[in-house]
Amino acid sequence: IEHLEQKYTDSIKIYTDGSKSERKVSAGVWCEELQIETNRRITDDTSITTAELIAIKRALQMVLEKKVTNENIAILTDSLCAAQTIDTPKPSHSRGNITVDIIKSIQ
Asked: From CA 22, how far away is CA 28, in angstroms rounded?
């Protein structure tokens, strides 16, 4: 975490996480600077990568809702698979719609 704090020192840092337990799946977003702390339960059969993508999408929605402008935003995830899915989207994939929404939000 110290490395991220140094690398993104001039950015608002938003942390996202998808989690899956034996029976429940959720997507969470936390940001101290914007006073965001949310955890949302999602459909139980959702994959962990989709949960991570939903958390990232929710983080972007919250930035728009809070009307954050002229600020550097760093959305931090621990999911390499979610980051790769955003980097090289496959529209035919089951996560295609979420990925397309994320990409549209950041353009």
From this structure: 17
CB 50 within 8 A of CB 98: yes
Q: Using one digit for the tens of pLDDT, what is the confidence trace for 24-47?
A: 999 999 999 999 999 999 999 899
The dihedral over CA atoms of 42, 43, 48, 50, expressed in degrees to the nearest 10, equals: -80
Query: Measured between alpha carbons, how far apart are the two ends of the chain, in Å?
Result: 27
**Residue from 80, 99, 71, 100 nearest 13 by CA:** 71
Beta bridge partners of 17: 28
- Tell me: the pLDDT tens digits for 42-81? 999 899 999 999 999 999 999 999 999 888 999 999 999 9
